[in-house]
Amino acid sequence: MKFYYTPGTVSLAVHIALEMSGADYQAMAIDFSSQEQRSDEFLALNPLGRVPALVTEQGVLTEAPAILNYIAAQYPQAKLAPLNDNFLRAKIDSFNSFMCSTVHVAHAHLWRGERWADSASAREAMAEKVPQNMTDCFNLIENSWLQGPWVQGEQFSSSDLYLFVVSRWLSGDSVELKQFEKVYTHHQKMLQLTEVQVLLKGLHA
């Protein structure tokens, strides 16, 4: 398999999952600074020009929640989802969908405002709302989603990878991670994982 990623993006969650799975894959860095994601070669893989993208024998997968689901099912030894518990697996999908469709979008209003507005004043207004919107999202995670010690309670899952990666963005959104006690504890716990340490010191440094 070939895995396309960019440091600082949600692709880190998938990268950690691949490391945990023991899958045979080749990591391919995409350089956003040179607009490599807009190259014809990469757009042929993902017309949206975004990471992550995973090239499998059956075809190309995009969008982090879908790729995480694939890895969990294809490599059950990673224990990223309980394949014999449909309800808990649906809860994992629910959380990951929330992170993708709500939290990530709230974050992107600061960095990718041109996706939603042409005028500078509109983009500025969206950016000003990011700290409050991200705080609201993480208050919801802190008080309603994160059961502890992992997102889904005692069961480690791909939800923990997603939360860890997005938590790393908070400082750039002018939000203090430590104000969310449970999320901060979770973040510190994730930093102890070997796969996380290897990637943060290497390809995602």
| Uncertain spans | none
- Share of helix, binned: 40-55%
Global Rg:
17 Å
Cα shape: globular
Biggest β-sheet, characterized? 4 strands, mixed
How many helical elements? Answer: 8
Q: Can you tell me the number of structural domains?
A: 2
The beta-strand count equals 4
Portion in beta strands: 5-15%
CATH topology of the largest domain: Glutathione S-transferase Yfyf (Class Pi), Chain A, domain 2
The strands making up the biggest β-sheet line up spatially as: 2-1-3-4
The CATH C-level class name of the largest domain: Mainly Alpha
Write down the overall mean pLDDT. Answer: 95
Order of helices and strands: EHEHEEHHHHHH
CATH architecture of the largest domain: Up-down Bundle
How far is the first residue's CA from the last residue's CA? 23 Å
User: Which secondary-structure class do the elements indicate?
Assistant: alpha+beta
**Assembly state here?**
single chain
Question: Explain this structure to me?
Answer:
It is a single chain. The protein is an alpha+beta fold and 205 residues long. The chain has two domains: 2-79 and 196-201, Glutaredoxin (3-Layer(aba) Sandwich); 86-193, Glutathione S-transferase Yfyf (Class Pi), Chain A, domain 2 (Up-down Bundle), CATH 1.20.1050.10. Helix content is 53%, strand content 8%. It has helices at residues 11-21, 40-45, 64-74, 86-111, 120-145, 158-167, 181-190, 194-201, and strands at residues 2-5, 26-29, 53-56, 59-62. Strand 3 and strand 4 form a beta hairpin. The protein is globular, with a radius of gyration of 17 Å.
Mind sketching the topology for me?
Layout: E1 2-5, H1 11-21, E2 26-29, H2 40-45, E3 53-56, E4 59-62, H3 64-74, H4 86-111, H5 120-145, H6 158-167, H7 181-190, H8 194-201
Helix pairs in contact: 1-3, 1-6, 4-5, 4-6, 6-7
